[in-house]
Amino acid sequence: MSILAFDVGASSGRVLLGQLTDRKIEVEEIHRFSNDPVQVGDHLHWDILRLFHEIKQGLLKAKQQGISPQSLAIDSWAVDFGLIGKNGELLGNPYHYRDRHTDGVMERLFALIPKSEIFKRTGIQFLPFNTIYQLYALRQADSPLLREADHFLMIPDLLRYFLTGEKLSEFSNATTTQLYNPSLGQWDTELLQNVGLPEAWFGTVVQPGERVGKLRSSISAELGVGGITLFAAAEHDTGSAVAAVPALEHTFAYVSCGTWSLLGTEVDQPVISDLALELNFTNEGGVGGRYRLLKNIMGLWLLQESKHEWDRTGICYAFPELTMMAEKTQPLTSFIDPDDPLFLHPGDMPARIRQYCRQTAQQIPAEPGEIVRCILESLALKYRYVLELTERLCGHGFCGLHMVGGGIHNTLLCQWAANASGRPVWAGPAEASAIGNLVVQWLARGEFADIWQARQVIWESFPVATYEPEQREQWEDAYGRFRQVTGLAE
Predict the structure, then answer these.
(1) What percentage of residues in the chain have a pLDDT greater than 70?
(2) 75, 157, 237, 339: which one is catalytic?
(3) What global pTM score does this model have?
(4) Catalytic annotation on 75?
């Protein structure tokens, strides 16, 4: 039985073919594409129709290889959305979460609804681009989109709607909006009213693994493919990635590492406490009704945006070259807080990193290798900081850290994460979001008894590299300096 996972990340997407044979998962990439945001005037948008085109290209390539998939599912990044008009068509191009139209909006909404009340109702980390603030920004701007809208769909819901015509919201992504109430198990009508949003826009919430339609007959005819069944994956790509963590112990810590790094653990019930609010943790939906207690960390966006700036000025290096250059520079000299607001928006990231180091009276990294080293070491140290906060919130420790996602190709980051945390790092699989997407489909089809059996099979199917901590004294000293210069010291 062949199934397809459409995994659309914030910088690239891929289509993976999955097959389950004799308790082993086999995957094959059949299509890969870039995901390039588009600046139009003052706003940054997602090219959503291009992404839909690439999904159809994936279906065509599967057909050309003689593959007749029994099902497919889609996952993507969180918080962003499209609005559907009364005629069933998309209204406008979805905003990118790094667009500046939400600047200052979070604080303005707190004047209407206290921060503590929003957290009590949703359990979600406060980030300036959360869906609730994007929608409130449109309301404050008197956007014509809101006057014409009839339905709200998150990005994977929207792409799935294009394929099936069904308007459904998936649980793991719905929770990231900061408009879903996990205690009630539904959209929070009071929050919707306070933001000025009609409850009717927000449709039925389905769980990962539910059947959510079939390919439209018009698309089947256009592409010459059969009527493929669609399932809801954990449609927030981190939810899918965590489903693919090959943990053999039921209590584990993970970091899903890519454009963003999301570090935390799984819990049976959301942790909505004063301490969770103080530490600004989030409780996002997962597979099997579980929750992902975690914090968002800026991630390899810092490196991607730095490379973009160097490319723009004619200093062109591949990522492996940059990593090699970083390895040859002086260690542990300059640090940044990856989550400082200075680094949120697109722009000249190397200049901002130098600005941060100048303002904190540190040695200023000048060459690309020094900038890259600063980024990777700072990420590793921030991982330790958030891991320790997770332990504090959970009331128990973790013996190591599982790293999954494309970021594990950066072996320096993996090793430095082990060095910084003082515990082993288990890295793999790299295509965790797509594999988790496939696993949810197999769970829905009864191929696995539960997620734990699936994780055992993932462990047996994909290589997992172990990184043991090294240079403990130097990294312990660096951690103290990192916390001082970033203001994270207690």
Answers:
(1) 100
(2) 237
(3) 0.97
(4) no
